[in-house]
């Protein structure tokens, strides 16, 4: 669909998703029935035990109108010890419970040795299309999403993105990737977003400000305050330190701004970046560790890759979403419903 839309200048990965990063997989559970329009999305960073072999990571909160869990410890230790799960705002507790159950089943000695787990769960508010107070998402849905992870996954109105809105249209799950060469080796930077933000009049598609045209086509005023959120996950196999990952996480705001968002007062805008390079083996008995780190003077291309992949992931979350009608008959049109306004986005 709309293959002429190109964003940025760096080469895309083979799949053009976050799963171009070796070892990364994504899975969904989608709940769609009347006023139930919601779900869970899971991201796993490698095929080993996530608790015992931890992924280096860093997060950045651009605007803190969010209810995520696990970020305090990620900020302190620079590690992920569970998969990353996405859902709606009022289901964070249920999904956290499911993620804890998964980790305990995978690593039963936690109960005797560690006694603690740091589940990482992000959220956006899908209440326009989903009766969020009904608490449709339960712990078992988190387990099902983790069990469904694959290198191939759907985008758009699926999983946690089922009930989300983006620039007054249908949003949801989107992903994209870029290739980055370091010496003679090819690496990847991939982004996955849960898009639920923006005002229609601000929407910009690959440099074309088409939001006002869509607003005119719908014949309704969409000029209210920006209320929504976006979760932006960046994965890479580049050897980056936790401090460098935080710098990469911040560059997602460049891609977000290019689509028209200004990170409004009521928006929860959060990014997390991780690398699959040099995982942390907590069972190691070594007293010191040697860790490879990218020369910071070469990092500009990584910043560009994160910005481009994030922008395209947001666009892909909209291009791959269909029109959805949910609670109280509320409807979000899809970007594809306005194909005649898009044309070639590179014109």
Automatic annotation (TrEMBL):
Pfam family, one: Peptidase_S58
Gene3D superfamilies: L-amino peptidase D-ALA esterase/amidase
Keywords: Aminopeptidase, Hydrolase, Protease
GO molecular function: aminopeptidase activity
Family: Belongs to the peptidase S58 family.
UniProt cross-references to PANTHER family, sorted A to Z: BLR5678 PROTEIN, D-AMINOPEPTIDASE
Listed name of the protein: D-aminopeptidase
Organism: Pseudovibrio denitrificans
């Amino acid at each position: 669909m709309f293959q002429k839309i190109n964003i940025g200048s760096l080469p895309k990965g083979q799949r053009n998703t976050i799963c171009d990063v070796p070892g990364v997989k994504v899975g969904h559970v989608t709940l769609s029935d009347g006023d139930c329009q919601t779900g869970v999305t899971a991201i796993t960073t490698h095929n080993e035990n996530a608790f015992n072999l931890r992924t280096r990571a860093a997060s950045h909160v651009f605007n803190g109108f969010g209810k995520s869990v696990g970020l305090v410890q990620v900020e302190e230790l620079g590690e992920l010890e569970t998969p990353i799960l996405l859902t709606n705002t009022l289901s964070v507790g249920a999904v956290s419970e499911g993620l804890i159950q998964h980790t305990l089943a995978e690593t039963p000695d936690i109960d005797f040795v560690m006694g603690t787990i740091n589940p990482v769960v992000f959220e956006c508010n899908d209440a326009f299309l989903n009766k969020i107070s009904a608490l449709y998402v339960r712990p078992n849905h988190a387990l099902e999403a983790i069990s469904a992870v694959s290198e191939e996954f759907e985008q758009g109105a699926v999983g946690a993105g089922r009930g989300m809105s983006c620039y007054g249209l249908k949003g949801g799950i989107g992903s994209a990737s870029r290739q980055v060469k370091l010496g003679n080796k090819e690496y990847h930077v991939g982004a996955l977003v849960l898009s639920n933000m923006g005002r229609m009049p601000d929407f910009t598609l690959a440099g074309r400000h088409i939001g006002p045209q869509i607003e005119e086509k719908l014949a309704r005023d969409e000029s209210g305050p920006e209320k929504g959120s976006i979760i932006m996950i960046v994965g890479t196999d580049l050897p980056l330190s936790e401090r460098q990952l935080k710098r990469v996480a911040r560059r997602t705001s460049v891609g977000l701004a290019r689509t028209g968002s200004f990170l409004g007062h009521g928006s929860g805008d959060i990014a997390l970046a991780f690398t699959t390079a040099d995982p942390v083996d907590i069972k190691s008995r070594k007293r010191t560790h040697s860790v490879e780190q990218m020369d910071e003077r070469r990092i500009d291309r990584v910043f560009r890759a994160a910005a481009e992949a994030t922008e395209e992931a947001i666009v892909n979350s909209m291009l791959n979403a269909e029109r959805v009608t949910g609670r109280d008959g509320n409807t979000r049109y899809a970007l594809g419903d306005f194909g005649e306004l898009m044309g070639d986005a590179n014109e």
